[in-house]
Amino acid sequence: ANRSLKFRSARLSPLMTKVLVSDPIDQAGIDILTQVAQVDQKVGLSPDQLKNIIGEYDGLMIRSGTQVTSDVISEAKKLRIIGRAGVGVDNVDVPTATRKGVLVVNSPGGNTIAAAEHALAMMLALSRNIPQANASMFAGGWDRKKYVGNELYKKTLGVVGLGKIGSHVAKVANAMGMEVIGFDPFVSNERAQQMQVRLSDIEELFKESDYVTLHLPRTPETENLVDIDLLRKMKPTARLVNCARGGIINENDLANALAENVIQGAAIDVYAKEPLAENSPLRAVKKGLVLTPHLGASTVEAQQNVAIDVAEQIRDVLLGLPARSAVNIPGLSAEIMDSLKPHLKLAETLGLLVSQISGGQIQKLEVRLQGEFAQHPSQPLVIATLKGLLTSALGDKINYVNASLEAKGRGIDVVEIKDELCPEFARGSLQLDSFSDKGGHSVSGTVFGDGDLGITSIDEYPINFVPSRHMLFTRHRDMPGIIGQIGSLLGKYNVNIASMQVGRRIVRGEAVMVLSIDDPIPSELLGSILSMQGINEAHSVTL
To answer: 421-434 pLDDT, tens per residue?
Structure first.
């Protein structure tokens, strides 16, 4: 009732509602906020200064500069919403905000066009030698023959990541007469056909493409994804563009590849560490490289778009209306969040696990809630599984609100099954069955009485282990010596084993093994394991 009265008061007297803007925000966003609240712009606050004044405010609008920590949120007595004018919310303690009942919103699509157009501009700059020709002109030259370029028309473009930005690049490239192939394990064939994109695995994409553009988040799976081995698969005339996230390309390998004429060119906007160090090997490359200082979202329109988008959401929430891009779960009280916390964590963990062992384009996901799980509100549990399922592909762009829409956009059919009987576990269990173009996989788990998570089966093989950050999953013939061979290989690569669990149904049949390890599995080591006699599958899993 008090909250309802606050919303009515906000309509009648904006001055009774206050919003703090603690980072530089486009004036268009400020103008929207002033419709419903007193707006205080205080840029450059220290953490202690922010803590001292946050208790006065109903809303907080930030960009990447302000660190909204647990301590800050704990001092927020009236705060109802935190709005991040941009995509990433790494500078906000989202779990604490959720427990406190504070909505966190962002603007996931505000810079889509800007980022896509910058990637296309980088492709054109590479093709027509625009930076070099410009520098030559200002130096007094007129070197027409030296800067003969290439057309994009009828060339093959490989788009790695077909989310909002990658799909827009594909759309424009199709209009320019390019043939577009794509890699995205979470996009169905039907969705790809709608985008006029031919799906491919990543190695074939790098082999076939004249241009490759990356549109992936930086995650443990994508870090250093493009290394010298992948670069050597490209045509010597090929060009590479990265306007997504730094760290996806191994910068030393790229510099060497350009110096050795492995590929013809590259255009890079984002870097593993920013600003780019003066002694970076990229700065020493003499030809075929275009560098820009993270300009992907740096357009007047994009800055206005994210400011307007987030300001409108803050305005709506202060008026008692829903937000459209909430990062945390809307509509749940702090009490329900606390009671469901381990169940949501299990759901997200199982989704992330099944996505990494599926190895194909997931087209259908069955979410089976058994026992106590079937008695809880099912929607947040299903959404949590989808968030985990899509995290490998989308990183921090995926959240509890957009997970269902993202799954639908990728053509994933989600089926919810409730079964209140679960004789095996007192607190019930959750099972995910994924179906992809390369077959099916199943994982199940439970929450124990102390709140710990347990994985109880993989592909219907009984197993019992606590998930850890880094794991190795294998499916292999149950025969003497195979586990010892794997252990020896891990030792050779200095990978330490923390624990091991093996599950089987019949002796000398097939078995699954899960190793908890201290470090991620190098790709070369995973390849060696896969080449072993008796190994049917091997997957490196990072949670």
So the answer is: 765 655 688 999 99
CA dist 374 and 351 (Å) reads: 17
361 within 8 A of 186, measured Cβ to Cβ: yes
CA distances from 87 to 105, 164, 217, 296, 523 (A): 9, 13, 11, 13, 30
Distance CA 108, CA 106 (A): 6
The DSSP string of 217-262 is ---TTTTT-B-HHHHTTS-TT-EEEE-S-TTSB-HHHHHHHHHTTS
- The span from the CA of 301 to the CA of 113, in Å, is 9
Nearest to 467 by CA among 377, 363, 354, 368: 354
The residues assigned a catalytic role are 245, 274, 294
How would you list the strands of the sheet with 429-436, edge to edge? 413-419, 362-370, 429-436, 439-447, 453-458, 461-465
Contact 330, 103 (CB under 8 A): yes
β-bridge mates for residue 101, sequence order: none
Residue 408: per-residue pLDDT: 86
Rounded to the nearest 5 degrees, what angle is found at the Cα of 244, between the Cα atoms of 285 and 29? 125
pLDDT at 426: 55
Q: What's the confidence (pLDDT) of residue 86?
A: 85
Q: State residue 424's pLDDT score.
A: 64
Start-end of H helices in 476-543: 482-492, 523-530
Low pLDDT (below 70) residues in the chain: 1-15, 330-338, 396, 401, 422-427
Cα distances (Å, whole numbers) of residue 409 to 386, 404, 412, 447, 517: 12, 9, 8, 31, 35
Cα 130 to Cα 153: distance, rounded to the nearest angstrom: 18
**Per residue in 85-127, pLDDT tens?**
987 787 899 888 877 878 899 988 888 999 999 999 999 999 9
**Residue type (1 letter), 203:** E
- Read off the amino acid at residue 379: Q
CA distances from 249 to 214, 231, 259, 274, 285 (A): 9, 10, 16, 14, 15
Residues 297 and 114: their CA atoms lie apart, in Å, by 5
Q: Give the pTM.
A: 0.72
